[in-house]
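Q: What structure does this chain adopt?
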Amino acid sequence: MLSPSLLARWRLARPVVWQMGAYAAFAVQVRLFELRGYYGPYAHPLLLAAAAGLLSVFALLHFLHRPPLQATSPPRAATRLVWGGLAMLLGGTWALYYQAPAILNNPIDVRASDVIPILQNYVARFQSGEVVYRYITNLPYPLFPNHLPLQWLPYLLPDQLGLDYRWWGLGLLLLLGFGAWQVVLANQPIGGVEFALKALLPAYLLVRIIRHDSYLYAQVLEPTIIAYYCVLAASVLSRSVLAQAVALVLCLLSRYSLVLWVPLYFWMLWHGAGRSHTLKVAALTLMGVLVIYVGPFLSKDWTIFTHALSEYRIATLGEWSRSDGPGGNIGHIFNGLGIAPWFSLYAPGDLSHKISWLQRAQVLASAATVLGFAALYWRLRHRLNYRLLALVALQSYLTVFYLFIQIPYPYLISLTLFISAFLVLAVGGSRWRPKPAA
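A:
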């Protein structure tokens, strides 16, 4: 039995212990991403997911055991926004120093990646008044467009200005994504040292990813999607109806991956922020989807959605049919970032059936994650702020979703690191720690 004094000290120390555990788990997650495949194509993705899972567990324990915030003075958000802006400038310069050579030395090449040439087709068609969502025939192979509007609409302006899309995508991440980070950070009741370190954390993460693999974002526009999800994570921690609706529209109209998490989020909003708040967010989100996607595109051809899913299936079969990886394995499948190799080896049937099994497992695992967090929220709703639990649920959901993704491209998986970083942002604090009783 612990003595009362030791028990009291442990209760005071618990938040710091879980805080350090969360930081350590994040560091391990980032390192495992860098070492992708080091522990083999079967074990490595499980270790990567386990590190992300530990981060979410430690974050939850920290949130549950830290005392209520007892800031002695306001965090001086306006002043800290200025310092955050300087951190963005410094971090952006730091990231450009390492990313610029990869962009300058790697011209856009459809043989390396078809992502940018496909988006260029969308932009050109839209600007000329053509039907955007019809077969593309000027690539080495015919392709039906399968990208949602907010993957390519942001590139109308750089196309008009004659800018390389990759500079624009990186700029969106540095300004929009990291800007959302700095807004959240400015309102955190933390000390100056912790603020300074966290102000530079997103740039440090980006630089570390680029330094390890400078080619990762050289032929794709994933920084745009990461920027959207940074805005989403920031909006989850905010109380703004507009910010939450805009973030949901940005993510829902760029990738399908968030669909199963959204009902959980609205349910948490309903109980945590109230019916009026939730209905406003839902109405604005629906309006955005109707105005940006359904009205101008989907209503003109209701088969666009099913055509896009079929195209994903065709692309997946093509990747799974390759054998140019180590040991004659499928290159992008056996890269140590997803659980696809398990299904490639053990699932019954031909390649098409194996992919179907993986798709079913992805839906079931993602749905189980959502249901698990729904039950957890209901149990903890009186002990934990819904915004914090919604952020943990988002990080865990995306970890599971991308663990079961059919083609675990490294640039896709890198998104999960930035959402994990928002958990690191939310965990911690110095001003809430009460002084021990005399």
